[in-house]
Specification:
This protein has about 750 residues and is of the alpha/beta class. Among the domains are: about 5-100, ADC-like domains (N-terminal domain of TfIIb), CATH 2.20.25.90; about 185-375, Dimethylsulfoxide Reductase, domain 2 (3-Layer(aba) Sandwich), CATH 3.40.228.10; about 620-749, Barwin-like endoglucanases (Beta Barrel). Helix 20 links the parallel strand 15 (about 435-440) and strand 16 (about 460-465). It starts with 7 loop residues before the first helix and ends with a strand. The relative contact order is 0.15.
Length: about 750
């Protein structure tokens, strides 16, 4: 059976058990693996290796079968309490990433001076020495001539070796995934609870209310399993979502249609009911929060937010809001989850929504309690700086291109405002003289064309990546990175960690082609650019194997990494002990955040409208989802998941479509105030008549990604960017990213 004989039904059957990569892709393996297999690999050897998936933060454990140096089979690790022996489609498709013939294979430099997405850079293969010598020389030259803040860094905030490299540079202009998805919730959590409480004990909850976050449809196994377990135990699930075909809405006991961006109104109204009727957990609230100190102000603040008021804004009946609030407060333990992008980064009122949802959980008395949101219990794995202490890092100026320095709470958490990048570069022309980008696509940004136009102006850019997405077309040097299947690490669980658990990540096969693990790339680059930061006290270069062994030993996971590999997984099962104090200045949870008020922001969640609302010109709300078989925009070139869903479309309500003269499959134009796309129409009863939905992750422009190129369209083209001035003007304490805040028109082509 060849790849193209694999149907969606066949794969879904397979993904319920295990995925046999070699069985599905024999011709593919013959054509790629045999050419790429590392010389000297042991022949006729079969082994089973435990490792952790890397395609989302859940890091589900799996067992891999490697035969003759080829990954042939992956299956979930039954003893892993997080994955429970299950894997999602993304994880099962391991062979599709590892043996993707489009992978970046060797270092390259551009020969075409014209930088523009869609224009051939004229890549030529170069050696690692030439690539790193060039990158190091340019980095040192840029800092010497233009200062440290002339370097822009875009990348994932981990691993720790990446943080060391960025700290060596000393630039204030750093943006990453945390800024994009987590920022608003980080600011709220830091000031209300004292830390980022992103673990959710769904399995022991008796009442679960979700606002936009599709726990099940997102296909993170740890959450989907836990929600399923809760439902099996009799928990009630309520989903507020304008799209009722979302996975959580499908399994929910109540799926309630809500106007996009009005979640804040409903949550504030629920808080109103709970306070007015005295339904909050009195012991928890009075003993562990600052409620009594600010009770008068708190009650006065929420008094106007009645269910009747919320109904006008949300289309959710007042009686429904009142009933759900009462059930949430009395049928617990209850939990209202919030995480990452949904809803905190979606809309201009995302910070306030995160704030309100956090207070809702506080009133239910389930912060760091069974059945609620809790702090992760993790092994203390030291970073590279603890193992090999660096010299003092260069001081940062604190002045960045988007004015983070002007926002006290963004500055406090050390994050930049992701969606302001293009605006900041326009306002500071010529400021950025070098870019360093690791595993980022312009598809992650609102209004990608304006971001691409600004990034193209950077005189010199180095990209490290796994696959040739379109952002490398703006690079001068490309450094090919190995996949997680080809590298080593320790993964401390923090998505669901009621007790300490760490899983090994180990090489299933040697690094293919001429790729190198990110740590090896940064060490080699760092030794050339900042040698004093990449040497031991005796002057010898840092050895990453030694560092990993020491991490393992100090964390109590084994004498060295080899011992941890033999174990595969370590879980220190222990009873969950709830906190009695919280990591705030007072030791109590701050329902009323005085620090916000002192800085000129709202101390309690205040109703604010989302940025863009429907008008005659743009009558529809834009919605988007990330399909469960994809992880944003990094997996769509995988031949296996591409077989399940290789492109996107526009979901339109049936009645709305009829009114517009649109039939199933018609090509339609979706237009916003900043851009337009064309896609086939998909008609459905599951979406509100005032909404259209475009799945995210498609519309790649890189011709080097042969499976993803030209398929579908980028939803982000429709989303306007924003400026720091916008954020400050609306007193947004968390700097909501607005990465989905748009309204559109729809017409038949």
């Amino acid at each position: 059976m060849t790849l193209h004989d694999t149907t969606r039904r066949d794969f879904l059957k397979t993904s319920g058990t295990a995925f046999a990569g070699a069985a599905v892709l024999p011709g593919f393996l013959d054509g790629v693996v045999r050419r790429a297999a590392a010389p000297g690999a042991e022949a006729a050897a079969t082994s089973q290796l435990v490792s952790a998936c890397s395609w989302c933060g859940s890091a589900c454990g799996f067992k891999a079968t490697v035969k003759d140096g080829v990954l042939t089979f992956v299956e979930g690790l039954p003893e892993d309490p997080q994955g429970g022996g299950k894997m999602c489609a993304k994880g099962k498709a391991a062979a599709g990433y590892l043996y993707d013939p489009d992978r970046l294979k060797y270092p390259m430099k551009r020969t075409n001076p014209v930088k523009k997405i869609g224009v051939d850079p004229g890549w030529v293969k170069i050696s690692w020495d030439e690539a790193l010598d060039t990158a190091a020389a340019k980095l040192k030259e840029t800092i010497e001539k233009n200062g440290r803040d002339s370097v822009l860094v875009l990348g994932l905030p981990s691993p720790d070796v990446w943080a060391r490299f960025v700290n060596c540079i000393g630039t204030s202009n750093r943006f990453d995934h945390w800024d994009e998805c987590f920022l608003a919730n980080r600011v709220v959590s830091a000031n209300v609870i004292g830390g980022f409480v992103w673990c959710h004990d769904f399995a022991n909850a008796k009442y679960i209310v979700t606002f936009g976050w599709d726990l099940v449809g997102k296909a993170k196994v740890v959450w989907a399993r836990a929600v399923a377990e809760a439902k099996k135990k009799g928990a009630k699930i309520v989903s507020f979502n304008p799209y009722k075909a979302a996975g959580t809405s499908v399994i929910a006991d109540e799926a309630i249609s809500i106007r996009p961006g009005s979640d804040l109104a409903v949550v504030n109204a629920m808080i109103h009911v709970i306070l007015a009727e005295g339904l909050y957990d009195e012991t928890f609230v009075k003993g562990l929060t600052n409620f009594e100190e600010h009770e008068t102000a708190i009650r006065a603040h929420f008094a106007p937010y009645t269910p009747e008021w919320a109904e006008e804004l949300s289309d959710v009946p007042a009686g429904t809001i009142r009933r759900i609030a009462r059930e949430f407060a009395t049928q617990g333990p209850a939990i209202a989850p919030i995480h990452k992008k949904t809803p905190s980064a979606n809309y201009a009122n995302g910070t306030e929504t995160s704030f309100a949802i956090t207070i809702l959980n506080v009133l239910a008395g389930t912060i760091d309690r069974p059945g609620g949101r809790f702090f992760p219990r993790t092994h203390s794995i030291p970073g590279i700086d603890a193992i090999v202490p660096p010299p003092k890092y260069p001081a940062k100026s604190g002045v960045d291109i988007v004015g983070r320095h002007a926002h006290p709470f963004l500055k406090a958490v050390g994050s930049g405002m992701f969606s302001c990048l293009a605006d900041g570069m326009r306002k500071n022309p010529g400021k950025i003289q070098m870019g360093i980008i690791t595993r980022y696509s312009t598809m992650a940004f609102p209004n990608p064309p304006e971001v691409e136009a600004e990034l193209a102006k950077i005189p010199f850019t180095v990209c490290t990546d796994l696959f040739p997405n379109e952002i490398i077309e703006l690079a001068d040097i490309v450094l090919p990175q190995s996949l997680s299947y080809e590298s080593s690490d320790l993964v401390a669980r923090d998505h669901h960690a009621p007790y300490k658990m760490t899983i090994v990540r180990q090489p299933l096969v040697p690094p293919m082609f001429e790729t190198k693990p990110l740590g090896a790339i940064l060490l080699a680059w760092g030794l050339k650019a900042f040698p004093e930061y990449w040497k031991n006290a005796d002057g010898t270069p840092i050895n990453m194997t030694v560092v990993l062994n020491e991490k393992t030993k100090r964390a109590g996971l084994g004498a060295d990494f080899a011992e941890m590999k033999a174990k595969g997984f370590v879980a220190d099962v222990a009873p969950f002990v709830p906190r009695t104090t919280f990591p705030t200045a007072s030791g109590k949870i701050n329902i009323y955040v005085k620090a916000f008020a002192d800085a000129g922001f709202e101390p309690l969640p205040t109703w604010k409208q989302k940025r863009d609302v429907p008008s005659d010109a743009y009558p529809f709300y834009l919605l988007t989802i990330i399909p469960p078989m994809q992880i944003r925009n990094t997996t769509t070139n995988n031949r296996i998941v591409n077989e399940i869903k290789g492109t996107n479309e526009v979901f339109i309500n049936v009645q709305t479509a009829r009114g517009l003269g649109i039939a199933e499959g018609d090509t339609v134009k979706v237009r916003s105030r900043v851009g337009e796309i064309q896609l086939p129409a998909r008609l459905t009863e599951a979406i509100r008549p005032d909404c259209v939905l475009v799945p995210h992750g498609f519309g790649h422009q890189s011709r080097l990604m042969t499976q993803a190129y030209g398929k579908g369209a980028k939803d982000a083209v429709l989303v306007p960017g924003q400026s720091m001035d916008d954020i400050l003007a609306r007193k947004d304490v968390g700097g909501s990213a607005c990465i989905m805040d748009a309204v559109v028109s729809v017409s038949k082509v």
